[in-house]
Amino acid sequence: MPVPKKKTSKARSRRRYAVWLGKAKLQAQRAMTIGRAILSGRNTGFYYPKAKSEEEEGEE
After folding, report:
1. Which GO terms fall under molecular function for this chain's record?
2. 24-39: per-residue pLDDT in tens?
3. CA–CA distance, 7 with 13 (Å, rounded to integer)
4. How far out from the chain centre does Cα 56 lie?
């Protein structure tokens, strides 16, 4: 016979939300760090498509 589940306490729900939010903040921080590295030219450990320069576009 089916039995209703127990309600999750607010403390547990808030703790799970805080963990989720912390992970999201960490990912955002990492993305900003990579973005800053690309813009400053200090990138060494990853690849990304480079935009064509004006000289290359003029030759075509």
Report:
1. structural constituent of ribosome
2. 999 999 999 888 888 8
3. 10
4. 32
